[in-house]
Amino acid sequence: MNANGKPKLAMYWASACGGCEISTLNIGEHILTVDAVFDLAFFPCIADFKVKDVLGYPDGYIDLCLINGAIRNSENEEMVRLLRRKSKLLVAFGSCAYEGCIPALSNLTTRDATLRAAYLDNPSIDNPAGTLPQPHTAVPEGDLEIPFFYHTVKSLDQVVDVDYTIPGCPPEPHQIWAVLQVVVAALTQGGSLPPKGVLLGAGSVAVCEECALAKHEKAVARFYRPYQIRPEPGLCLLEQGLICMGPATLSGCGALCPQVGMGCRGCYGPLPGAEDQGMRMLTAIASILDVSGRPGDNELDLERKVEAAADTIVDPAGTFYRFSMAHSLLRRARTDGVEAAVPQPAVWS
Amino acid sequence: MSPERIGVYVCHCGSNIAATVDVEEVALWASEELGDRGVVVARDYQFMCSSLGQELIEADIKEQGLTRVVVAACSPHLHERTFRTACKRAGLNPFLCELVSIREQVSWVHTDRAAATEKAMAVVSGGVERVTLHQPLEPLHVPIHPATLIVGGGIAGIQAALEIADSGYPVYLVEREPSIGGHMAQFDKTFPTLDCSACILTPKMVDVGGHPNVTLLTWSEVERVDGYVGSFTVTVRKKARYVDESVCTGCGICTEKCPVRVLDNTYEAGLGYRKAVYRPFAQAVPKYPVIDRENCTYFQRGKCKACQLFCPTHPKAIDFEQKDEILQFQVGNIILATGYDLFDCRRIPQYGYARLANVFTSLEFERLCNAAGPTGGKIVLRDGVTEPATVGIIHCVGSRDHNYNPYCSNICCMQSLKFGHLVKERTGAEVFNFYIDIRTAFKDYDEFYQRVLEDGVHFVRGRVAEVTDAARLPGEEGKLIIQVEDTLLGKQRRIPVDMVVLSAALQPRQDSTEVAYTFGIACSANGWFIEKHPKLDPVATMTEGIFIAGACQGPKDIPASVAQGAAAAARVLGRIHQKELALEPVRASIIAERCSGCRICNNLCPFNAISYDTARMITEINPALCQGCGTCVAACPSGAITGTQFSNEQVLAQLYGLLLLNVSSGPVQQPQPALVPA
């Protein structure tokens, strides 16, 4: 804290969409309280700060630093290492920082393929020279350098030490406000901080707990995409063949999606101790697949039926690991050494 | 440093392990490399399972204060109990002992000694990491209900029922046909002694029927089995007989007065007739008839009621309004003795069954020979009068044939020899047996074969190609010609006969897979019920409390079926006498605070241990029903279900050890768990 006695707040985005900032501002009139309580130290989304401002702070100057976004390139990594050094409490804010989220789906392919998709092989791209981003470009004025695009997208805790995690894509405003209140109480009134490493701003059970739809024993013969059927109101979506990640997803959001007929996407991540959200949901889906098999059925026939039923799930990796790829047991797809072919520059910190 | 004091014991298993794995090296490695992980003593020994081997462990537990034990030896299936018991004797909770397999999973599947030794080290390392997280557990005790359900009233089921009932314990005997007796009740003589089948069977049937400890439920089928060993809840459908058993005297007047004659495909194998209200055979137990709804004039056309009209009892025993009854009762154990079906000989068209009149199945022939059968025991052609002058008996019809059943049906050789003898005895006809091999391996069986040889029965070694009525040579007109390669003479023969008997294969019951499903046991690829161990546990199954006896387990003759019936009864009686059973405490449990009530697991449990509490809106597991299979543990997307001794932490720790991430000299350097390189 500096002379005016106010704790310092920072919020930074790494590889992110900006939704986390919007959700933070969505806490409504409470934002006035945040302004009254905190001094902003670094918040590129809403105030003009430069990296050199941060470099000028003494270590540990920032009391609370919220980082959203995944670690996609060398700039992301440099910035979070810097902010870690300058911050007392560092929070992985939102799904990207927590577990990689959408950016980490590119871990299913290679760096090369990702760059091709973004700069070459796409009908909306006009790039006749086939130019790809280069870390170094020599121009008459000197050597230009841009951040290095990593092979693998990482979560924040895979790069720096993280004090707390707030899940969600984005975290719900009421949860953000609740967490801020706890931290503020601790910083200004000497309340106790939650133990290091915990998830904040979330429940402790699965989304189903908060979901009012009626649940029954499940036997699903095939799955549908949301546009293919009109779900029966009031009835569990998973039972109706709409993929809902609710059972494998931590509560805290209030089950907003399933209650308006859209299956839970799983953005709050796995339950503590459930390790791997995608795998958990896959085994659950496998357990409720009903191909009307009877004991003694021909195994090959059964296998075909199971495969046909499973094939009704479009893009399983993107469905089950939509948010959690970087933090899953898989972490990324095998590339058999392709990634080692492109040397990666050292990162300062 | 690990807080535990772990002992590692590496078994040579004679040369079973030691020939492929350097066991001394493994023990030495464990004591040096896994010292940081809590290993305070590591030994190798010739036979860890011997008394001396076990004493080694016990002494270390007492003297070195071991808190965990890892035994690297054979599969836990074989000796887990041995080593757990040894630990228990030394005062260590038996579940703090982990048996890792370096025989089935290492020495028996590898040839490269160096690689196998390295793998054994990894396996031991995994065991050490896992056992560190083991919890002391206590077995669950469940009481055993003294009643037993026996399914199937053939000779195996009858024997089992009598053994248990005679010991003073209640038995429910469920039979789907109107009478008990099974296939044995259809036979005339039994090999090798040629006793009259009915004469030795019916006294046992009568005993069962009148036994105070036996509840006989014929014309009934088991619909559902819930619960677990010691406390099964059985649901039985008692089909409507349309005869009030409390009134009927079994006088038989209804049968006499019934105007409808029905071809009897079950008991008479299609050779004889019965009425629409009938008792399958004279000595049927129970004595009450049953109305065959499909063929009864009243049920089909709404009038007749002759049986009711003439029924002499007051009130009338015939009750057209009777409905199926659903009965529910508790039993502690179950014996399945559901028998076999006969191979359908029409599946081999070249043998002419159902096309050539005088081709008979073995069961038809049994009925022909039977004094109470359709011909009064006269062996005659399908016309009912002509005695055959020559009879051909074909062995292995549908057995030992990759087109139908690969297995030997066990009884057909002796049955065919018996047929040969009966033909000789009753008609003096010439008899030809067509066989592949003669298998007469049991007591007095080969003597019987010699006797039949002396009777003058001819034996032709070769599989019959065809049975035809197309005469080609003089003397073949009007005959059935058996075309066969006589492999002893090395030439084709055509043997004209008047009658052909097909010794048909024994097959699993048509609905055996559904029955297996109902009772939660397994069937082999052929459809026979699978025993727990083919040699050492032949009447138990992998499901606790469910036993099997007789031909439902595989083709079997009467002596073997009786032996199995008695054996299953002995196993059940042993259980009942224990009064309670100690169950493995390896169980799944739900952390209630973490269950969201999503109900994914609700219909997965093969043992019906999972139920949903509608008031609390969470799912619960009944620990006594749970068998610890782990299906729900894997399915729970919330990680709310854990398996005792198979927690995530334990499994991951074992992997950590297996990958040698726990030792500094392991092939993979210890990673920094939090920070991951790009």
Give the arrangement of secondary structure elements:
The complex is a heterodimer of chains A (349) and B (678).
Chain A: E1 8-13, H1 19-25, H2 30-37, E2 39-42, H3 51-56, E3 62-68, E4 71-73, H4 74-86, E5 87-93, H5 95-99, H6 111-119, E6 136-139, E7 142-145, E8 149-154, E9 164-166, H7 173-189, H8 277-288, H9 299-310, H10 316-320
Chain B: E1 6-11, H1 23-33, E2 39-45, H2 51-64, E3 68-73, H3 76-89, E4 97-101, H4 113-132, E5 140-143, E6 148-151, H5 155-166, E7 171-174, E8 189-190, E9 195-196, H6 197-210, E10 214-217, E11 220-228, E12 231-238, H7 253-257, E13 261-264, E14 272-275, E15 277-278, E16 290-291, H8 297-301, H9 306-310, E17 325-331, E18 333-336, E19 340-342, E20 359-361, H10 362-369, E21 390-397, H11 412-427, E22 430-435, H12 445-455, E23 458-461, E24 464-468, E25 480-486, E26 491-497, E27 499-504, E28 506-508, H13 512-519, E29 546-548, H14 558-578, E30 580-583, E31 588-590, E32 610-613, E33 618-621, H15 631-635, E34 641-643, H16 648-658
Parallel strand pairs in B: 1-2, 1-3, 3-4, 6-7, 6-18, 7-10, 18-29, 20-27, 21-22, 21-27, 22-23
Antiparallel strand pairs in B: 5-30, 8-9, 11-12, 12-17, 13-14, 15-16, 19-28, 24-25, 25-26, 31-34, 32-33
